[in-house]
Amino acid sequence: MNMKSKILQIGLLAAALMSFASCNLDYAPENTLVDEKVYKTQKTAEAALLGAYVRLDIFLSGAPQDQNNYSNTGYTMLMGDMATDNIAIRPSATGFVAVQTSTFTSSEHDGLLASMWSWGYNAIDYANNIINKITEFGTFDENMKRQYIAEAKFIRAYVNFQLLCLYGDQALLGENDKEGIIIRTDAYNGYNPDDIASRSTNKDCWNFILNDLETDALPYLPDEVPSIANRVRANKTVAKALLSRIYLYKGTYTKNQEDLTKARDYAKEVIDTQGYTFPTSSSEYTSALFPSNEYTQSGSYPDPTTRSNEIIFFEASRIYTDNYPNGLSYYRKQSYYIPTSMKDLYDENDVRRTDLIWQGSKTDYANDVTTKKYSGGNYDDVLYIRMAEMKLTYAETLVRTSGSVSADAVQQLNDVHQRAYPTGQKPTLYKVSDFSSTDAFLREVLKERNRELAYEGHYRWDLMRTNNMLGDQTLGAIDKSKWNLPIPDYEIRISYGKLKQNTGYQE
């Protein structure tokens, strides 16, 4: 059994065992007897850990197989493109219109925003159980205990980071003293109006996330590079890649050289790690990065014959696409779609224009532009971290830390850009002399990030951290104080005033 199947089968079993602890947030977690049974042995503790990975997947990209319910979860990655020119909203989808324009009503607070918040903290609750209860009840090998706790802290850091991007009051704009998110380290014990947690400052949130990931998790994660199909759990390379992203997001707006240097160095370490590569054929997009994952009604889970070796961390075959076979399947075409202007981002010979961003056909909304990234037979892989992101991060941070455009930085940009063209149709290589300033180079890197990583959960955060350097019209129409999302109204109400609304949304 490969790791993907193991997580799907054991993780969902663990989730069921722990459901009354974390699925229903109105109930207290498991009692001491159950705790001891779940976390005592390596086998059961690992099952609980895999259940936490399932919760991470639910928060980031959607419900696991057999639990297809996008009304409750799976919007976190979507937020990476929402409120940008990458996504258009149909007027009837009022909740998404609110996100696109940052004009919310209380009911809209309590829908989409509340689901992302609650499922994020649900995943954190799972991680906290593992961290605390393996320490208390685990009787198995100490090295494995440390690894499982490190993986749980990786999960907690990843979720807290995404929550901070979503809800932290101008957290990506360098406002370190404003309020971020609630930092939770204990398992949920039921709602208690006399014990309402406060939001930590953005600064304290960044520090907590980095301490979890860099100090506590990284040293104890495995060094081994797993087979491509099994890159669904954290190892040292996955943690370094996520650290590179976090430091990039944290340091860009303020031009913090220490943060940007760390983003650069971690990206370089990932690029240089043996076992991962950056395949250069333009066929990589449809043959291995975004293959169609055919699913049979026999009950077996889809498993593409080929996956790209540039994949660092992903969710295997979880996005249900049967209802929307024309593409943009991860998203609901009745509510939101890709504007036709997206095709204009790509040159005529760029295979991403036709292979990844293409005109819909066949059935619903046939004239919409859509994306091959989520358009398999029934289930598609979801890519969380891959080498193209690291190469573009390295290019960007090389320039941001040196103050000049170097040949190495240009080479990283060329690697990603050139791959998108077939042999015989490749454009002229970029040269250092092509860029009149560092800003000119940085704008080209950001454009390439959008072309390459569109609909993988990056663009909105790239725009925010660079102060909308590309002049995105949708984000530009929103007051900067509302670039982050508001705290769900429900959370404010049940806190009896202890939680305050983000600055831009205060009446």
Quick take:
With 507 residues, the chain is mainly alpha-helical. The protein has helices at 3-17, 19-22, 32-39, 42-61, 94-101, 106-137, 142-167, 202-217, 236-252, 257-271, 284-289, 351-355, 387-402, 407-419, 438-453, 459-465, 473-476, 489-494; strands spanning 88-89, 311-320, 336-337, 357-359, 369-371, 379-386.
Question: What's the SSE blueprint?
Answer:
Layout: H1 3-17, H2 19-22, H3 32-39, H4 42-61, E1 88-89, H5 94-101, H6 106-137, H7 142-167, H8 202-217, H9 236-252, H10 257-271, H11 284-289, E2 311-320, E3 336-337, H12 351-355, E4 357-359, E5 369-371, E6 379-386, H13 387-402, H14 407-419, H15 438-453, H16 459-465, H17 473-476, H18 489-494
Antiparallel strand pairs: 1-3, 2-6, 4-5
The coarse silhouette is globular
What is the CATH class of the domain at 275-476?
A: Mainly Alpha
Q: In whole angstroms, how far apart are the ends?
A: 55 Å
Overall mean confidence score, pLDDT: 86
The assigned CATH architecture of the domain at 275-476 is Alpha Horseshoe
Q: How big a fraction of the residues is strand?
A: 5-15%
Helix content: 40-55%
SSE string, helices as H and strands as E: HHHHEHHHHHHHEEHEEEHHHHHH
Quickly count the helices. 18
Largest sheet: 2 strands, antiparallel
Q: Could you please say which CATH topology of the domain at 275-476 applies here?
A: Serine Threonine Protein Phosphatase 5, Tetratricopeptide repeat
Q: Which regions contain 5 or more consecutive residues with pLDDT less than 50? A: 19-30, 65-73, 294-298, 319-330
The number of strands is 6
Gyration radius, in Å:
22 Å
By helix and strand content, what is the structural category? mainly alpha
Oligomer: single chain
Biggest sheet, spatial arrangement of strands:
1-3
